[in-house]
Specification:
By secondary structure, this protein is of the alpha/beta class. It is built from 19 helices and 12 strands. The chain has 2 domains: about 270 residues, 3-Layer(aba) Sandwich (Rossmann fold), CATH 3.40.50; about 80 residues, formyl-coa transferase, domain 3. The protein is about 40% helix and about 15% strand. The strands form 3 sheets. Strands 3-2-1-4-5-6 form a 6-stranded parallel beta sheet, sandwiched between helices. Helix 2 crosses helix 8 and helix 8 crosses helix 9. The two termini are about 35 Å apart.
């Protein structure tokens, strides 16, 4: 079975909201899998209302449009017994491969989405529950809370300033990446053994796992690790420097690179005995960085980068989002999605890897779904629920 055929036969049913699970299922969409997102008919994903209202309708705001392309949408009230029965019917009749949710554990049994119940519907189901602090905790967990508790925020910011939030929601998106890897492991396990899996995933544990260097430094080597701004603990100069027309990040990783830097036109004043070795540069890093910036600020950014490239010195302009969109390494792989109703087109971030499915569809994903957009197709056409029953389900607010 070729890769595309494998993923095109996968069905994921997701009780999702916010970022962590929607980003995971968005990655599955990019593989060619079918993703059906379930939302409450009157209390949908709050992200539908976040950001600008770019379409002339509610529930399709800009923030929601970023990571939900290519999915199908069902409304379903799982607080109602009939709603739970419909979910179980979906899993059985659509032969769902994965069920995933980021509901709090206390809601699992109440909503009929607990592992025991759903695996009873399909024995080889891969069940994934994504929570802030694991299945024993019902504490809510927004991404910045996880950044704070996991130490990521303690590591971010200037040494003499307060901790700062990261520029991206790493606990959310990092958890999504790790859930994706676990889902792939479970699919392989099922292929070999025929058995399903239960995955209880803690976003807090995920966030702490990114401290793979810092925690051993504290636990095993008795170092105190905290934020250092843009500098590096073990190498210098490694930092942000101003140029005449922007900022660059320069990373000198060894003494040979340092010597090459000091031989460039304009940088000879840095050729001092105390800086010849990395330890001396680290010991005087603040003063050294001031001397370097006094030089870099006299150069245009591009001219400076050309000089560094000539001596194979790692450096980069610090790009804005607009700069990134102009980069051909990015621009040629951007995803697009267009609303068939209005013609409105959204440019999406490029995938980490160009799957053959994305190449096949020419990087054009179906537009993010309206709330309940696929109710008729899935409930009526695929589950064979009669029209009169559909009307009854709507009136009783089950769908």
């Amino acid at each position: 079975m070729v890769q595309d055929d494998f993923f095109s036969h996968l069905t994921i049913i997701s009780l999702e909201q916010a970022i962590v699970v929607p980003y995971f299922t968005y990655k599955m969409v990019q593989d060619g899998a079918r993703v059906i997102r379930i939302e409450h008919p009157t209390i949908p994903d709050p992200n539908r209302q976040v950001g600008e209202q770019v379409l002339a309708e509610k529930g399709m705001n800009s923030y929601f449009l970023t990571i939900n392309a290519g999915k199908e949408s069902l409304t379903l009230n799982l607080k109602e017994k009939k709603g739970q029965e419909l979910l179980h019917k979906l899993i059985k009749e659509l032969q769902a491969d994965i069920f995933v949710t980021n509901q709090l554990p206390k809601n699992y049994e109440k909503l009929g989405i607990d592992y025991e119940t759903l695996s009873g519907c399909k024995s080889d189901l891969i069940w994934i529950g994504v929570t802030g602090f694991g299945p024993e905790s019902n504490e809510g967990a927004y991404d910045p809370i996880l950044q704070a508790r996991s130490g990521l925020m303690e590591m971010t910011g200037e040494a003499d300033g307060p901790p700062q939030v990261l520029g991206i929601p790493l606990p959310d998106m990092g958890s999504s990446e790790q859930v994706y890897a676990l889902a792939m492991q479970s699919l392989l396990k099922r292929e070999v053994s025929g058995s399903g899996s239960r995955i209880d995933f803690s976003m807090f544990r995920s966030a702490v796992s990114w401290q793979a260097i810092n925690l051993p430094m504290v636990a095993s080597f008795n170092r105190h690790i905290s934020r250092r701004g843009n500098t590096h603990e073990f190498f210098a100069p490694v930092s942000v420097f101003r140029t005449r027309d922007g900022f660059i990040y320069l990373a000198v990783g060894n003494d040979r690179q340092w010597q090459a830097l000091t031989k460039l036109d304009g940088f000879s004043s840095l050729d001092q005995d105390k800086y010849r070795h990395n330890a001396g540069r680290i010991a005087d890093v603040s003063n050294l960085n001031r001397q370097i910036e006094a030089i870099t600020i006299t150069f245009p950014c591009e001219k400076l980068l050309q000089k560094f490239q000539q001596i194979t010195l790692p450096a980069s302009k610090i790009n804005t989002m607009e700069d990134i969109l102009d980069n051909p390494l990015v621009n040629d792989h951007l995803l697009k999605t267009m609303d068939p109703d209005s013609g409105y087109t959204v440019t999406l971030a490029p995938p980490a890897y160009d799957t053959s499915y994305l190449q096949e569809i020419n990087y054009q994903l179906p537009f993010p779904p309206r709330l309940g957009e696929h109710n008729q197709h899935i409930y009526h056409e695929q589950l064979d629920i009669p029209e009169e029953e559909m009307e009854s389900l709507k009136k009783s607010k089950v769908i």
